[in-house]
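Supplementary Text 2. Reproducibility record for the structural model of the 151-residue chain.

All settings were left at their defaults, and a single model was retained for analysis rather than an ensemble. We include the record here because the model underlies the residue-level annotations in Supplementary Table 4.
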Amino acid sequence: MATKSEPSLRARALRLVARREHSREELRRKLAAHAAEGEDVTVLLDDFAARGWISDARFAEMAARAKARRYGPLKLAHYLRGRGLADEIIAAGVKAAGADGVSNIESIWRSRFRDLPGDEQDKARQVRFLQGRGFPLDQIFRFLKQMETFP
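Retained model, structure tokens:
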């Protein structure tokens, strides 16, 4: 049983869910540290999911929408996998958010660079930047080639 100064596990979970979306696994990790003996985090999370208060699909879509402006599809998927989501949920969330990376590679590139690479060293620097933002190498080369053709 929780003391007066420490909120119950349910109250703690409600406070976390009220602030922002959480994946089921993320919430489980946060609550497990505070679960007293006899309290079952899984039952609490099942109740929250049944009420629609937590949803991995909703979390995946919202996170993809929020991070798609700065990151490509690979980095988004890595972030969501780190939050305990399955690959099917990640793919559906990224698709629902419209964050496939094709449309935003140019905006991310323009946020850092003004001109096309002048030499191989500059091209390598731009490729590394876009890879670090989570874009696949073939998509980066296709984008740079397209930019050279249509500046």
